[in-house]
Design a protein that fits this description.
Elements lengths: L4 E8 L5 E5 L3 E4 L7 H12 L2 E6 L11 E2 L12 H11 L2 H4 L4 H10 L7 H12 L6 H24 L13 E6 L8 H18 L3 E6 L1 H4 L7 H12 L5 E7 L7 H4 L4 E4 L5 H10 L10 H5 L5 E6 L2 E7 L6 H8 L8 H4 L8 H25 L1 H42 L1 H42 L12 H7 L4 E2 L8 E5 L3 H12 L5 E2 H10 L6 H14 L3 E3 L5 E3 L5 E5 L5
Parallel strand pairs: 3-8, 3-9, 4-6, 4-7, 5-6, 7-8, 13-17
Antiparallel strand pairs: 1-2, 1-11, 9-10, 10-11, 12-17, 14-16, 15-16
Bound molecules: adenosine-5'-diphosphate (ADP) and magnesium ion.
Adenosine-5'-diphosphate binds next to helix 1.
Length: 584
Protein backbone atom coordinates (compact mmCIF):
# COMPACT_ATOMS: atom_id res chain seq x y z
CA UNK A 1 0.00 0.00 0.00
CA UNK A 2 1.32 3.44 -0.90
CA UNK A 3 -0.03 6.66 0.48
CA UNK A 4 0.03 8.26 -2.95
CA UNK A 5 -2.31 5.61 -4.29
CA UNK A 6 -6.03 5.02 -3.99
CA UNK A 7 -7.22 1.57 -2.97
CA UNK A 8 -10.56 -0.19 -3.09
CA UNK A 9 -11.34 0.73 -6.69
CA UNK A 10 -9.21 -1.37 -9.01
CA UNK A 11 -8.95 -5.18 -8.92
CA UNK A 12 -6.65 -7.16 -11.11
CA UNK A 13 -8.23 -9.41 -13.73
CA UNK A 14 -8.26 -12.33 -13.39
CA UNK A 15 -6.55 -12.62 -9.95
CA UNK A 16 -8.93 -10.32 -8.09
CA UNK A 17 -5.91 -8.76 -6.41
CA UNK A 18 -6.42 -5.14 -5.24
CA UNK A 19 -4.39 -2.58 -7.19
CA UNK A 20 -3.41 0.95 -6.21
CA UNK A 21 -4.52 3.85 -8.39
CA UNK A 22 -1.77 6.49 -8.38
CA UNK A 23 -2.91 9.92 -7.27
CA UNK A 24 -1.97 11.71 -10.47
CA UNK A 25 -3.54 13.53 -13.35
CA UNK A 26 -5.63 10.92 -15.07
CA UNK A 27 -7.65 10.18 -18.16
CA UNK A 28 -10.39 7.62 -18.51
CA UNK A 29 -11.64 6.65 -21.95
CA UNK A 30 -14.20 4.28 -23.36
CA UNK A 31 -17.43 4.13 -25.21
CA UNK A 32 -20.34 5.66 -23.35
CA UNK A 33 -22.59 3.34 -21.30
CA UNK A 34 -20.67 0.19 -22.07
CA UNK A 35 -17.42 1.06 -20.35
CA UNK A 36 -18.37 2.59 -16.98
CA UNK A 37 -16.15 5.72 -16.88
CA UNK A 38 -18.38 7.76 -14.66
CA UNK A 39 -18.82 4.86 -12.30
CA UNK A 40 -15.04 4.66 -12.07
CA UNK A 41 -14.58 8.38 -11.34
CA UNK A 42 -17.30 8.24 -8.72
CA UNK A 43 -15.74 5.25 -7.00
CA UNK A 44 -12.19 6.62 -7.18
CA UNK A 45 -13.13 10.04 -5.81
CA UNK A 46 -15.03 8.40 -2.96
CA UNK A 47 -12.11 6.09 -2.17
CA UNK A 48 -9.59 8.96 -2.31
CA UNK A 49 -11.33 10.78 0.53
CA UNK A 50 -10.55 13.98 -1.32
CA UNK A 51 -12.74 16.80 -2.49
CA UNK A 52 -13.73 16.79 -6.10
CA UNK A 53 -15.35 19.20 -8.50
CA UNK A 54 -17.26 17.74 -11.41
CA UNK A 55 -18.55 19.82 -14.29
CA UNK A 56 -21.89 18.92 -15.67
CA UNK A 57 -21.90 20.15 -19.24
CA UNK A 58 -24.84 18.30 -20.66
CA UNK A 59 -28.04 16.94 -19.33
CA UNK A 60 -28.09 13.43 -17.88
CA UNK A 61 -24.35 13.09 -18.14
CA UNK A 62 -23.46 12.41 -14.58
CA UNK A 63 -24.04 9.90 -11.84
CA UNK A 64 -22.69 11.44 -8.66
CA UNK A 65 -25.97 11.01 -6.86
CA UNK A 66 -24.75 12.55 -3.64
CA UNK A 67 -22.84 15.39 -5.15
CA UNK A 68 -23.35 18.80 -3.60
CA UNK A 69 -24.22 21.59 -6.05
CA UNK A 70 -21.82 24.49 -6.33
CA UNK A 71 -23.04 27.99 -7.06
CA UNK A 72 -22.21 29.34 -10.47
CA UNK A 73 -18.65 30.39 -9.98
CA UNK A 74 -17.32 33.10 -12.24
CA UNK A 75 -14.44 35.48 -11.89
CA UNK A 76 -13.35 37.21 -15.05
CA UNK A 77 -9.90 38.19 -13.90
CA UNK A 78 -8.28 35.03 -15.14
CA UNK A 79 -9.90 35.48 -18.50
CA UNK A 80 -8.45 38.90 -19.12
CA UNK A 81 -4.99 37.34 -19.10
CA UNK A 82 -3.60 37.63 -22.57
CA UNK A 83 -3.08 33.87 -22.78
CA UNK A 84 -6.75 33.29 -22.10
CA UNK A 85 -7.62 35.84 -24.74
CA UNK A 86 -5.17 34.24 -27.11
CA UNK A 87 -7.02 31.01 -26.39
CA UNK A 88 -10.32 32.70 -27.15
CA UNK A 89 -8.93 34.14 -30.31
CA UNK A 90 -7.38 30.96 -31.54
CA UNK A 91 -10.69 29.27 -30.82
CA UNK A 92 -12.17 31.54 -33.45
CA UNK A 93 -9.27 31.87 -35.86
CA UNK A 94 -7.35 29.68 -38.21
CA UNK A 95 -4.21 28.56 -36.49
CA UNK A 96 -1.99 30.10 -39.17
CA UNK A 97 -3.49 33.59 -38.83
CA UNK A 98 -2.99 33.34 -35.15
CA UNK A 99 0.68 32.60 -35.66
CA UNK A 100 1.28 35.72 -37.78
CA UNK A 101 3.94 37.96 -36.27
CA UNK A 102 2.45 40.94 -34.47
CA UNK A 103 -0.78 39.18 -33.54
CA UNK A 104 0.47 38.10 -30.14
CA UNK A 105 1.77 41.57 -29.44
CA UNK A 106 -1.59 43.07 -30.41
CA UNK A 107 -3.35 40.65 -28.05
CA UNK A 108 -1.02 41.38 -25.17
CA UNK A 109 -1.52 45.05 -25.83
CA UNK A 110 -5.34 45.03 -25.53
CA UNK A 111 -5.08 42.96 -22.35
CA UNK A 112 -2.42 45.03 -20.67
CA UNK A 113 -2.38 48.57 -22.05
CA UNK A 114 -2.79 51.08 -20.61
CA UNK A 115 -3.71 49.03 -17.51
CA UNK A 116 -4.41 45.33 -17.07
CA UNK A 117 -8.01 44.88 -18.22
CA UNK A 118 -10.40 43.87 -15.46
CA UNK A 119 -13.16 42.42 -17.56
CA UNK A 120 -13.89 41.02 -20.95
CA UNK A 121 -16.14 44.02 -21.55
CA UNK A 122 -13.15 46.28 -21.02
CA UNK A 123 -11.16 44.26 -23.53
CA UNK A 124 -14.08 44.48 -25.91
CA UNK A 125 -14.08 48.27 -25.66
CA UNK A 126 -10.37 48.40 -26.33
CA UNK A 127 -10.73 46.09 -29.32
CA UNK A 128 -13.50 48.27 -30.73
CA UNK A 129 -11.33 51.36 -30.26
CA UNK A 130 -8.44 49.66 -32.09
CA UNK A 131 -10.73 48.79 -34.97
CA UNK A 132 -11.41 52.48 -35.49
CA UNK A 133 -7.73 53.10 -36.08
CA UNK A 134 -7.26 53.53 -39.85
CA UNK A 135 -3.55 52.67 -39.57
CA UNK A 136 -4.26 49.19 -38.19
CA UNK A 137 -2.48 46.47 -40.16
CA UNK A 138 -4.77 44.32 -42.25
CA UNK A 139 -4.16 40.97 -40.54
CA UNK A 140 -4.39 42.48 -37.07
CA UNK A 141 -7.62 44.10 -38.11
CA UNK A 142 -8.81 40.64 -39.06
CA UNK A 143 -7.83 39.31 -35.62
CA UNK A 144 -9.62 42.09 -33.79
CA UNK A 145 -12.67 41.80 -36.02
CA UNK A 146 -12.97 38.15 -35.00
CA UNK A 147 -12.44 38.96 -31.32
CA UNK A 148 -15.02 41.69 -31.61
CA UNK A 149 -17.51 39.29 -33.17
CA UNK A 150 -16.77 36.66 -30.54
CA UNK A 151 -17.20 39.03 -27.60
CA UNK A 152 -20.24 40.56 -29.25
CA UNK A 153 -21.86 37.16 -29.04
CA UNK A 154 -20.55 35.99 -25.68
CA UNK A 155 -20.82 39.13 -23.54
CA UNK A 156 -24.61 39.48 -23.73
CA UNK A 157 -24.94 35.84 -22.64
CA UNK A 158 -22.59 36.55 -19.75
CA UNK A 159 -24.57 39.64 -18.80
CA UNK A 160 -27.76 37.62 -18.60
CA UNK A 161 -26.16 35.31 -16.07
CA UNK A 162 -24.27 37.97 -14.16
CA UNK A 163 -26.70 38.26 -11.26
CA UNK A 164 -26.17 34.58 -10.45
CA UNK A 165 -22.41 34.60 -10.18
CA UNK A 166 -20.54 33.70 -7.08
CA UNK A 167 -16.95 34.81 -6.76
CA UNK A 168 -16.17 32.37 -3.98
CA UNK A 169 -15.21 28.77 -4.43
CA UNK A 170 -15.76 27.02 -1.15
CA UNK A 171 -15.63 23.28 -0.59
CA UNK A 172 -16.15 22.97 3.13
CA UNK A 173 -15.95 19.20 3.41
CA UNK A 174 -14.72 16.16 1.46
CA UNK A 175 -17.00 14.79 -1.22
CA UNK A 176 -18.09 15.56 -4.72
CA UNK A 177 -19.28 19.00 -5.74
CA UNK A 178 -21.05 19.58 -9.01
CA UNK A 179 -20.70 22.72 -11.06
CA UNK A 180 -23.83 22.17 -13.07
CA UNK A 181 -23.13 24.47 -15.98
CA UNK A 182 -25.91 22.99 -18.04
CA UNK A 183 -28.47 23.28 -15.27
CA UNK A 184 -27.41 26.83 -14.37
CA UNK A 185 -27.90 28.05 -17.91
CA UNK A 186 -24.35 27.99 -19.22
CA UNK A 187 -25.09 26.02 -22.34
CA UNK A 188 -23.04 27.18 -25.30
CA UNK A 189 -19.57 25.70 -25.75
CA UNK A 190 -18.04 29.18 -25.75
CA UNK A 191 -19.56 30.08 -22.41
CA UNK A 192 -18.79 26.70 -20.88
CA UNK A 193 -15.17 27.27 -21.82
CA UNK A 194 -15.14 30.59 -20.02
CA UNK A 195 -16.67 29.13 -16.88
CA UNK A 196 -14.49 26.03 -16.80
CA UNK A 197 -11.38 28.18 -17.31
CA UNK A 198 -12.45 30.61 -14.62
CA UNK A 199 -13.10 27.87 -12.07
CA UNK A 200 -9.94 25.90 -12.80
CA UNK A 201 -7.94 29.08 -12.44
CA UNK A 202 -9.58 29.79 -9.10
CA UNK A 203 -8.87 26.25 -7.94
CA UNK A 204 -5.30 26.70 -9.08
CA UNK A 205 -5.03 29.84 -6.97
CA UNK A 206 -6.82 28.76 -3.84
CA UNK A 207 -7.42 25.05 -3.50
CA UNK A 208 -5.36 22.06 -2.60
CA UNK A 209 -6.21 18.37 -2.14
CA UNK A 210 -8.81 18.51 -4.86
CA UNK A 211 -9.67 16.52 -7.94
CA UNK A 212 -11.24 18.40 -10.83
CA UNK A 213 -13.12 16.22 -13.27
CA UNK A 214 -13.69 17.46 -16.81
CA UNK A 215 -15.81 15.45 -19.21
CA UNK A 216 -16.36 16.11 -22.90
CA UNK A 217 -12.76 17.19 -23.11
CA UNK A 218 -12.80 17.73 -26.87
CA UNK A 219 -14.78 20.89 -26.03
CA UNK A 220 -12.11 22.23 -23.73
CA UNK A 221 -8.92 20.76 -25.19
CA UNK A 222 -9.71 20.88 -28.87
CA UNK A 223 -7.21 19.71 -31.43
CA UNK A 224 -5.70 22.36 -33.76
CA UNK A 225 -7.51 25.19 -32.03
CA UNK A 226 -7.07 27.23 -28.95
CA UNK A 227 -9.45 27.59 -26.02
CA UNK A 228 -9.39 29.68 -22.89
CA UNK A 229 -9.25 26.45 -20.89
CA UNK A 230 -6.05 25.20 -22.47
CA UNK A 231 -3.57 27.52 -20.87
CA UNK A 232 -5.27 27.24 -17.46
CA UNK A 233 -5.19 23.46 -17.65
CA UNK A 234 -1.56 23.61 -18.72
CA UNK A 235 -0.71 25.64 -15.63
CA UNK A 236 -2.85 23.52 -13.35
CA UNK A 237 -1.43 20.23 -14.55
CA UNK A 238 2.14 21.45 -14.35
CA UNK A 239 1.96 23.04 -10.93
CA UNK A 240 -0.92 21.64 -8.88
CA UNK A 241 0.60 18.22 -8.19
CA UNK A 242 2.66 19.58 -5.32
CA UNK A 243 -0.51 20.61 -3.48
CA UNK A 244 -2.35 17.41 -4.35
CA UNK A 245 -4.45 19.04 -7.00
CA UNK A 246 -5.36 16.64 -9.77
CA UNK A 247 -7.18 16.87 -13.02
CA UNK A 248 -9.13 13.89 -14.28
CA UNK A 249 -10.41 13.74 -17.81
CA UNK A 250 -13.37 11.64 -18.87
CA UNK A 251 -13.77 11.11 -22.61
CA UNK A 252 -15.25 8.64 -24.96
CA UNK A 253 -12.17 8.71 -27.14
CA UNK A 254 -9.24 10.87 -28.10
CA UNK A 255 -10.77 12.12 -31.31
CA UNK A 256 -10.52 15.88 -31.66
CA UNK A 257 -8.57 16.16 -28.42
CA UNK A 258 -5.27 18.03 -28.30
CA UNK A 259 -2.75 15.20 -27.81
CA UNK A 260 -0.06 17.60 -26.68
CA UNK A 261 -2.04 18.31 -23.54
CA UNK A 262 -2.72 14.65 -22.91
CA UNK A 263 0.94 13.90 -22.38
CA UNK A 264 0.76 15.21 -18.85
CA UNK A 265 -1.95 12.69 -18.00
CA UNK A 266 0.14 9.65 -17.36
CA UNK A 267 -2.44 7.50 -15.59
CA UNK A 268 -4.85 6.26 -18.22
CA UNK A 269 -7.67 3.80 -18.27
CA UNK A 270 -8.98 2.46 -21.56
CA UNK A 271 -12.38 0.80 -21.56
CA UNK A 272 -14.40 -0.77 -24.31
CA UNK A 273 -13.79 0.87 -27.66
CA UNK A 274 -15.38 -0.29 -30.91
CA UNK A 275 -13.64 2.15 -33.24
CA UNK A 276 -10.53 0.55 -34.87
CA UNK A 277 -8.94 3.92 -35.45
CA UNK A 278 -9.29 4.77 -31.78
CA UNK A 279 -7.95 1.35 -30.86
CA UNK A 280 -4.76 2.16 -32.76
CA UNK A 281 -4.41 5.33 -30.67
CA UNK A 282 -4.92 3.35 -27.49
CA UNK A 283 -2.38 0.72 -28.43
CA UNK A 284 0.14 3.44 -29.22
CA UNK A 285 -0.44 5.00 -25.82
CA UNK A 286 0.14 1.79 -23.89
CA UNK A 287 3.82 1.41 -23.02
CA UNK A 288 4.11 -2.29 -23.72
CA UNK A 289 6.34 -4.40 -25.96
CA UNK A 290 4.47 -5.18 -29.15
CA UNK A 291 3.83 -8.83 -28.31
CA UNK A 292 2.40 -7.88 -24.89
CA UNK A 293 -0.05 -5.27 -26.21
CA UNK A 294 -3.68 -6.26 -26.12
CA UNK A 295 -5.32 -7.43 -29.33
CA UNK A 296 -7.73 -4.90 -30.91
CA UNK A 297 -10.63 -7.34 -30.50
CA UNK A 298 -9.85 -7.54 -26.77
CA UNK A 299 -10.42 -3.80 -26.52
CA UNK A 300 -13.50 -4.04 -28.69
CA UNK A 301 -15.01 -6.65 -26.38
CA UNK A 302 -13.99 -5.34 -22.98
CA UNK A 303 -16.69 -6.04 -20.42
CA UNK A 304 -18.48 -3.37 -18.46
CA UNK A 305 -16.24 -1.87 -15.78
CA UNK A 306 -13.14 -3.47 -17.29
CA UNK A 307 -10.19 -1.27 -18.29
CA UNK A 308 -6.68 -1.58 -19.56
CA UNK A 309 -5.04 0.67 -17.03
CA UNK A 310 -1.66 2.28 -17.39
CA UNK A 311 -0.64 2.69 -13.77
CA UNK A 312 2.81 4.20 -13.48
CA UNK A 313 4.96 2.07 -15.80
CA UNK A 314 2.77 -1.00 -15.78
CA UNK A 315 -0.31 -1.84 -17.77
CA UNK A 316 -2.93 -3.91 -15.97
CA UNK A 317 -6.27 -5.30 -16.97
CA UNK A 318 -8.55 -4.21 -14.14
CA UNK A 319 -12.09 -4.33 -12.91
CA UNK A 320 -13.56 -1.22 -11.27
CA UNK A 321 -15.57 -1.71 -8.12
CA UNK A 322 -18.52 0.72 -8.13
CA UNK A 323 -19.12 2.52 -4.81
CA UNK A 324 -22.22 0.51 -4.28
CA UNK A 325 -20.63 -2.94 -4.85
CA UNK A 326 -19.27 -4.95 -1.89
CA UNK A 327 -15.57 -5.75 -2.28
CA UNK A 328 -15.95 -9.54 -2.27
CA UNK A 329 -18.46 -9.33 -5.12
CA UNK A 330 -16.10 -7.05 -7.05
CA UNK A 331 -13.29 -9.56 -6.59
CA UNK A 332 -15.52 -12.32 -7.89
CA UNK A 333 -16.29 -10.19 -10.96
CA UNK A 334 -12.56 -9.57 -11.44
CA UNK A 335 -11.95 -13.31 -11.21
CA UNK A 336 -14.57 -13.86 -13.88
CA UNK A 337 -16.96 -15.70 -11.55
CA UNK A 338 -19.67 -13.06 -11.99
CA UNK A 339 -20.63 -10.94 -14.97
CA UNK A 340 -20.58 -7.19 -14.20
CA UNK A 341 -23.96 -6.61 -15.86
CA UNK A 342 -25.50 -9.69 -14.22
CA UNK A 343 -28.42 -9.57 -11.84
CA UNK A 344 -26.20 -10.73 -8.92
CA UNK A 345 -24.03 -7.65 -9.38
CA UNK A 346 -26.57 -5.06 -10.54
CA UNK A 347 -28.92 -5.81 -7.62
CA UNK A 348 -26.52 -3.91 -5.34
CA UNK A 349 -26.96 -0.80 -7.30
CA UNK A 350 -29.40 1.60 -5.69
CA UNK A 351 -32.56 2.06 -7.72
CA UNK A 352 -31.83 4.69 -10.27
CA UNK A 353 -33.31 7.92 -9.24
CA UNK A 354 -35.97 9.31 -11.45
CA UNK A 355 -34.92 12.39 -13.34
CA UNK A 356 -37.34 14.31 -11.20
CA UNK A 357 -35.82 13.02 -8.00
CA UNK A 358 -32.32 13.73 -9.22
CA UNK A 359 -33.25 17.19 -10.24
CA UNK A 360 -34.93 17.68 -6.93
CA UNK A 361 -31.83 16.69 -5.02
CA UNK A 362 -29.61 18.68 -7.27
CA UNK A 363 -31.67 21.81 -6.97
CA UNK A 364 -33.04 21.46 -3.47
CA UNK A 365 -30.22 23.41 -1.84
CA UNK A 366 -30.53 26.10 -4.46
CA UNK A 367 -34.26 26.09 -3.99
CA UNK A 368 -33.82 26.36 -0.22
CA UNK A 369 -31.50 29.30 -0.71
CA UNK A 370 -33.96 31.04 -2.99
CA UNK A 371 -36.75 30.29 -0.57
CA UNK A 372 -34.97 31.77 2.41
CA UNK A 373 -34.08 34.77 0.32
CA UNK A 374 -37.71 35.13 -0.64
CA UNK A 375 -38.75 34.81 2.99
CA UNK A 376 -36.25 37.44 3.91
CA UNK A 377 -37.69 39.75 1.29
CA UNK A 378 -41.21 38.97 2.46
CA UNK A 379 -40.30 39.81 6.01
CA UNK A 380 -39.20 43.18 4.75
CA UNK A 381 -42.64 43.87 3.34
CA UNK A 382 -44.17 45.30 6.52
CA UNK A 383 -41.16 47.62 6.80
CA UNK A 384 -41.61 48.42 3.20
CA UNK A 385 -45.25 49.28 3.85
CA UNK A 386 -44.29 51.64 6.65
CA UNK A 387 -41.67 53.19 4.46
CA UNK A 388 -44.07 53.67 1.58
CA UNK A 389 -46.69 55.05 3.97
CA UNK A 390 -44.18 57.54 5.39
CA UNK A 391 -43.06 58.56 1.96
CA UNK A 392 -46.65 59.09 0.85
CA UNK A 393 -47.40 60.98 4.04
CA UNK A 394 -44.40 63.27 3.61
CA UNK A 395 -45.40 63.83 0.04
CA UNK A 396 -48.96 64.63 1.02
CA UNK A 397 -47.84 67.02 3.75
CA UNK A 398 -45.63 68.77 1.29
CA UNK A 399 -48.57 69.18 -1.06
CA UNK A 400 -50.73 70.58 1.73
CA UNK A 401 -48.02 73.03 2.71
CA UNK A 402 -47.68 74.15 -0.88
CA UNK A 403 -51.43 74.59 -1.19
CA UNK A 404 -51.45 76.54 2.07
CA UNK A 405 -48.72 78.86 0.90
CA UNK A 406 -50.46 79.32 -2.40
CA UNK A 407 -53.69 80.23 -0.62
CA UNK A 408 -51.77 82.65 1.60
CA UNK A 409 -50.21 84.33 -1.39
CA UNK A 410 -53.60 84.66 -3.04
CA UNK A 411 -55.15 86.12 0.12
CA UNK A 412 -52.34 88.65 0.41
CA UNK A 413 -52.91 89.65 -3.17
CA UNK A 414 -56.60 90.18 -2.42
CA UNK A 415 -55.75 92.26 0.63
CA UNK A 416 -53.47 94.42 -1.50
CA UNK A 417 -56.27 94.91 -4.00
CA UNK A 418 -58.75 95.84 -1.28
CA UNK A 419 -56.20 98.18 0.27
CA UNK A 420 -55.81 99.92 -3.04
CA UNK A 421 -59.53 100.14 -3.36
CA UNK A 422 -60.11 101.56 0.09
CA UNK A 423 -56.85 103.43 0.52
CA UNK A 424 -56.23 101.65 3.77
CA UNK A 425 -52.57 102.65 3.94
CA UNK A 426 -53.49 106.28 3.95
CA UNK A 427 -56.11 105.69 6.58
CA UNK A 428 -53.65 103.86 8.74
CA UNK A 429 -51.08 106.62 8.35
CA UNK A 430 -53.63 109.21 9.30
CA UNK A 431 -54.71 107.15 12.29
CA UNK A 432 -51.08 106.81 13.39
CA UNK A 433 -50.58 110.55 13.02
CA UNK A 434 -53.68 111.21 15.04
CA UNK A 435 -52.46 108.89 17.71
CA UNK A 436 -49.08 110.66 17.89
CA UNK A 437 -50.63 114.06 18.00
CA UNK A 438 -53.11 113.12 20.67
CA UNK A 439 -50.23 111.86 22.80
CA UNK A 440 -48.29 115.08 22.21
CA UNK A 441 -51.25 117.21 23.04
CA UNK A 442 -51.85 115.25 26.17
CA UNK A 443 -48.23 115.76 27.25
CA UNK A 444 -48.37 119.44 26.48
CA UNK A 445 -51.62 119.81 28.33
CA UNK A 446 -50.13 118.20 31.39
CA UNK A 447 -47.06 120.39 31.16
CA UNK A 448 -49.19 123.50 30.75
CA UNK A 449 -51.16 122.67 33.79
CA UNK A 450 -48.04 122.34 35.97
CA UNK A 451 -46.56 125.47 34.38
CA UNK A 452 -49.66 127.50 35.00
CA UNK A 453 -49.55 126.50 38.66
CA UNK A 454 -45.91 127.72 38.89
CA UNK A 455 -46.72 130.97 37.13
CA UNK A 456 -49.61 131.53 39.46
CA UNK A 457 -47.27 131.23 42.40
CA UNK A 458 -44.73 133.61 40.85
CA UNK A 459 -47.46 136.11 40.13
CA UNK A 460 -48.67 135.91 43.70
CA UNK A 461 -45.07 136.45 44.94
CA UNK A 462 -44.58 139.41 42.58
CA UNK A 463 -47.89 140.92 43.63
CA UNK A 464 -46.69 141.02 47.18
CA UNK A 465 -43.31 142.53 46.23
CA UNK A 466 -44.68 144.96 43.66
CA UNK A 467 -48.21 145.80 44.72
CA UNK A 468 -48.77 148.17 41.73
CA UNK A 469 -48.53 145.37 39.19
CA UNK A 470 -52.07 144.58 38.30
CA UNK A 471 -52.82 141.24 39.70
CA UNK A 472 -56.28 139.98 39.44
CA UNK A 473 -57.38 136.46 39.32
CA UNK A 474 -59.16 137.23 36.07
CA UNK A 475 -55.96 138.39 34.41
CA UNK A 476 -54.32 135.03 34.95
CA UNK A 477 -56.37 133.39 32.35
CA UNK A 478 -54.99 130.29 30.80
CA UNK A 479 -54.25 131.91 27.44
CA UNK A 480 -52.41 134.74 29.07
CA UNK A 481 -50.27 132.37 31.16
CA UNK A 482 -49.34 130.40 28.13
CA UNK A 483 -48.21 133.51 26.29
CA UNK A 484 -46.21 134.91 29.17
CA UNK A 485 -44.43 131.72 30.06
CA UNK A 486 -43.57 130.84 26.48
CA UNK A 487 -40.02 129.55 26.53
CA UNK A 488 -37.77 129.78 23.58
CA UNK A 489 -34.48 127.97 23.60
CA UNK A 490 -31.64 129.08 21.37
CA UNK A 491 -28.65 126.89 20.86
CA UNK A 492 -25.39 127.30 19.14
CA UNK A 493 -23.61 124.05 18.76
CA UNK A 494 -20.16 124.50 17.30
CA UNK A 495 -17.39 122.43 18.88
CA UNK A 496 -18.23 123.24 22.39
CA UNK A 497 -17.65 121.05 25.42
CA UNK A 498 -19.47 123.17 27.95
CA UNK A 499 -22.69 124.96 27.52
CA UNK A 500 -23.14 128.10 29.49
CA UNK A 501 -26.68 128.66 30.58
CA UNK A 502 -27.85 132.19 30.92
CA UNK A 503 -31.09 134.03 31.15
CA UNK A 504 -32.14 137.44 29.94
CA UNK A 505 -32.62 138.40 33.58
CA UNK A 506 -28.99 139.48 33.59
CA UNK A 507 -27.40 142.16 31.41
CA UNK A 508 -24.98 139.55 30.01
CA UNK A 509 -27.92 137.37 29.08
CA UNK A 510 -29.66 140.32 27.43
CA UNK A 511 -26.49 141.21 25.43
CA UNK A 512 -26.01 137.65 24.19
CA UNK A 513 -29.68 137.21 23.38
CA UNK A 514 -29.86 140.41 21.35
CA UNK A 515 -26.53 139.76 19.62
CA UNK A 516 -27.53 136.23 18.61
CA UNK A 517 -31.01 137.28 17.57
CA UNK A 518 -30.32 140.54 15.80
CA UNK A 519 -26.67 140.42 14.83
CA UNK A 520 -25.94 136.75 14.19
CA UNK A 521 -22.54 135.73 12.79
CA UNK A 522 -21.13 139.22 12.68
CA UNK A 523 -19.03 141.68 14.60
CA UNK A 524 -20.83 144.50 16.25
CA UNK A 525 -20.09 147.72 18.19
CA UNK A 526 -21.45 148.71 21.59
CA UNK A 527 -23.88 151.05 19.86
CA UNK A 528 -25.17 148.29 17.54
CA UNK A 529 -25.85 145.82 20.33
CA UNK A 530 -27.42 148.57 22.39
CA UNK A 531 -29.77 149.32 19.50
CA UNK A 532 -30.54 145.62 19.10
CA UNK A 533 -31.40 145.34 22.79
CA UNK A 534 -33.79 148.27 22.49
CA UNK A 535 -35.73 146.25 19.96
CA UNK A 536 -36.31 143.64 22.72
CA UNK A 537 -37.35 146.40 25.13
CA UNK A 538 -34.10 146.53 27.10
CA UNK A 539 -32.73 150.07 27.67
CA UNK A 540 -29.27 149.60 29.14
CA UNK A 541 -27.18 152.73 29.72
CA UNK A 542 -23.63 153.15 28.41
CA UNK A 543 -22.39 153.23 32.00
CA UNK A 544 -23.68 149.70 32.56
CA UNK A 545 -23.14 148.34 29.06
CA UNK A 546 -19.48 149.37 28.57
CA UNK A 547 -18.08 147.73 31.74
CA UNK A 548 -20.26 144.67 31.19
CA UNK A 549 -18.85 144.23 27.66
CA UNK A 550 -15.35 144.72 29.04
CA UNK A 551 -16.06 142.09 31.73
CA UNK A 552 -17.41 139.67 29.13
CA UNK A 553 -14.27 140.06 27.00
CA UNK A 554 -12.23 139.40 30.12
CA UNK A 555 -14.29 136.26 30.93
CA UNK A 556 -13.97 135.02 27.40
CA UNK A 557 -17.66 135.44 26.66
CA UNK A 558 -16.86 137.92 23.90
CA UNK A 559 -13.97 138.57 21.56
CA UNK A 560 -12.98 142.22 21.16
CA UNK A 561 -11.72 143.36 17.81
CA UNK A 562 -9.48 146.41 18.21
CA UNK A 563 -10.56 149.56 16.37
CA UNK A 564 -12.59 152.73 16.70
CA UNK A 565 -15.16 152.09 17.74
CA UNK A 566 -14.20 148.70 19.23
CA UNK A 567 -16.24 145.81 17.90
CA UNK A 568 -17.24 142.49 19.48
CA UNK A 569 -18.25 139.01 18.44
CA UNK A 570 -19.28 135.84 20.22
CA UNK A 571 -16.37 133.35 20.32
CA UNK A 572 -16.96 130.69 17.70
CA UNK A 573 -15.97 127.84 19.99
CA UNK A 574 -18.21 128.91 22.82
CA UNK A 575 -21.77 127.93 23.32
CA UNK A 576 -24.41 129.81 25.18
CA UNK A 577 -27.89 128.90 25.96
CA UNK A 578 -29.94 131.89 26.80
CA UNK A 579 -33.38 131.68 28.25
CA UNK A 580 -35.48 134.71 27.63
CA UNK A 581 -37.84 135.54 30.35
CA UNK A 582 -40.52 137.70 28.85
CA UNK A 583 -42.14 138.34 32.21
CA UNK A 584 -39.42 140.59 33.53
N1 LIG B 1 -17.75 -1.56 -12.71
C1 LIG B 1 -19.07 -1.69 -12.92
N2 LIG B 1 -19.71 -2.77 -12.43
C2 LIG B 1 -21.04 -2.88 -12.64
N3 LIG B 1 -21.79 -2.04 -13.31
C3 LIG B 1 -21.19 -0.94 -13.80
C4 LIG B 1 -19.81 -0.73 -13.64
N4 LIG B 1 -19.47 0.40 -14.26
C5 LIG B 1 -20.61 0.90 -14.78
N5 LIG B 1 -21.65 0.12 -14.51
C6 LIG B 1 -23.01 0.36 -14.95
O1 LIG B 1 -23.00 0.60 -16.34
C7 LIG B 1 -23.81 1.73 -16.68
C8 LIG B 1 -23.00 2.78 -17.37
O2 LIG B 1 -22.03 3.24 -16.51
P1 LIG B 1 -21.39 4.71 -16.59
O3 LIG B 1 -20.40 4.82 -15.50
O4 LIG B 1 -22.46 5.71 -16.62
O5 LIG B 1 -20.75 4.65 -17.98
P2 LIG B 1 -20.06 5.82 -18.83
O6 LIG B 1 -19.77 6.95 -17.90
O7 LIG B 1 -18.83 5.24 -19.38
O8 LIG B 1 -21.07 6.15 -19.87
C9 LIG B 1 -24.42 2.15 -15.38
O9 LIG B 1 -25.70 1.63 -15.23
C10 LIG B 1 -23.53 1.63 -14.30
O10 LIG B 1 -24.19 1.33 -13.12
MG1 LIG C 1 -20.21 8.92 -18.16
Amino acid sequence: MRIDEIYGVLYQVPTGKPLGLPKRHLGVFGVTRDSGKTTFVEAAVAASGMKAIVFRTKRGEIGFDNAKPLPLFFDERGLTHWKALEGLISATLEEKVHREPGVRYAIISVCKNPTPAKSLAEIHQRVKAKLKDPKLKEFIKEVFTKVDAYLEEVLPQLEKLRGNFSDRLELPEPGVYVEDLEGLGVKSDELQNLFVASLIRKAYEELSGVIIVVAEIWKFLPQDRGSPVKWVIEKYVREMGVVEGWLWLDAQDLRGVDKKHLRSFDVRLFGRQPDPHEIDEILKALPLPKQEKPKPEQIMTLKLGHFFAKLRDKVELTYVRPVWLPEEIAIRVAKGELEPDSEEVQKYKPAPKSRLQEDEEMYRPLYEKEKSRREELESEIPNLRTRIFNELKADFEKQIEEARQQAFREAMQKVEEIKKLWNIDEMQETIAKFKDETANLKLRLEKLQTDSEAVQKIREGLAQLLPNVPSTGAEISKERTMEVTHVEVLTKTIHSDEIEKLTTKTVIGKILWAAQKELPDKEWSEQEVSDAMVEWGWNISHSTLAPTLGGMVKDGALVRIQGRPARYRIPTKKKFEVEKEGSQ
